[in-house]
Design a protein that fits this description.
This protein starts with 5 loop residues before the first helix and ends in a 7-residue tail after the last helix. By secondary structure, it is α/β, with parallel strands linked by helices. Helices cover 54% and strands 7% of the residues.
């Protein structure tokens, strides 16, 4: 700690606000600054200028349920998406590195090898490295808390006076103001399944996953998909029960309609291997329809389309575009589904579908990656 920062530090202990230097506390309260409004004394030496010139923002983080998941093909998570949206706003590429611990993350920032660290490290550890930090939620702790996410999530920078810190802090506060942070936290909720429900999920997976894991892996390799995603879809569709039948006539482990099964070349929907093959092929085709959308969002679009049909999703995208918003931004689609779920049960079902599959995917990644085949 240096200078007259003790008052700010005490305040930070209460609300995780911007800390270390009194002059930088106000950064957490600034509105988002347009890129052309940044005026540094020596732009050539700032991290902001390096990021914009090199077109790359390097962020390091430890894998946590709030920060990022990285066991599958694509990174995803509240913290990851927050940084991805910030990089998009800067019109630069995001280089997001998952590191083993907070100490490594802080050292990389201190050494200038990373621009930002997304961390829940203690204030004392951050200050020991003579680094600066501010809340990665702009004080929007309620949004994270009600969704079971860690409220102690901060962004660490080397120099609080660097314009990069100003733009990052401003962007995050803008995300709080416009509601996008709330939607992001809601999608990444840890409450998609209650505690008692997870006990049942785990019992089911321990009993059935070993039976079908080899089929999921074999088909996933064929289509270059994440087998854990297919397994999560299968659990959401049928609890991995191959003889499942719905009142509407969809059936099998992946709950295919008769029309979809025929289109995918499936003869027997009740055969689990054929069902997994058909579901994977259909999911792969849906992913192909959204090639203009980057991962991981492309997964969420394909899942919604799998659930309610690509035509229904196209209709939602059309309505979003009419409002002057980007129909290929997942948060816009998610927000639309949330706003209209009361009046349209299919939207509510789609929300539950994609959110639970994401949660099942993370659970399988964490607990069933090395399930033994039988």
């Amino acid at each position: 700690m240096h200078g007259n920062s003790s008052q700010v530090t005490r305040r930070s202990r209460l609300n995780h606000a911007f800390t270390v230097r009194t002059s930088t506390f106000a950064l957490a309260l600034l509105p988002f600054l347009p890129l052309n409004a940044i005026n540094a004394k020596d732009p050539a030496t700032t991290q902001y200028s390096n990021v914009t010139e090199q077109k790359k923002l390097t962020v390091v983080a430890v894998k946590t349920p709030t920060n990022v998941f990285n066991s599958g093909q694509n990174l995803h998570g509240f913290g990851y998406d927050l940084m991805r949206n910030y990089a998009k706003n800067l019109n630069v590429e995001l280089d997001f590195k998952v590191v083993p611990d907070n100490n490594t993350a802080l050292n990389l920032v201190s050494q200038g090898k990373a621009n930002l660290a997304l961390t829940n490290a203690s204030m004392e550890k951050i200050e020991d490295k003579q680094l600066n930090f501010f809340s990665a939620t702009c004080g929007n702790f309620n949004a994270l808390q009600k969704n079971g996410l860690d409220t102690n999530i901060n962004l660490v920078v080397k120099n609080a006076d660097d314009p990069l810190a100003q733009t990052a802090s401003g962007f995050i506060c803008n995300a709080k103001t416009d509601g996008s942070m709330d939607h992001l936290a809601s999608f990444y909720t840890r409450n998609a399944v209650d505690d008692n429900g997870w006990d049942i999920v785990e019992q089911d997976l321990k009993k059935r996953m070993p039976v079908y894991r080899a089929s999921f892996k074999q088909v996933a390799q064929k289509y270059n998909l994440d087998w854990q995603m297919l397994a999560a879809m299968g659990y959401q569709e049928s609890y991995l029960k191959p003889n499942s039948v719905s009142p509407t006539g969809v059936r099998g482990l992946m709950m295919l309609t008769n029309t979809t099964a025929k289109a995918m070349g499936i003869q027997n929907r009740d055969d689990p291997k054929q069902s997994i093959q058909g579901g994977a092929k259909y999911y792969d085709q849906l992913l192909g329809q959204y090639q203009e959308i980057p991962f991981p969002d492309r997964n969420w679009y394909a899942l919604v389309a799998y659930n309610m049909g690509p035509g229904a999703l196209a209709g939602i995208q059309k309505q979003i575009a009419k409002k002057g918003k980007d129909p290929n931004d997942w948060l816009n689609v998610y927000a639309y589904l949330q706003r209209h779920q009361v009046t349209n049960s299919k939207y509510k079902q789609a929300l539950q579908y994609v959110t639970r599959i994401r949660a099942y995917l993370e659970h399988i990644q964490a607990n069933h990656t090395n399930t033994i085949n039988v």
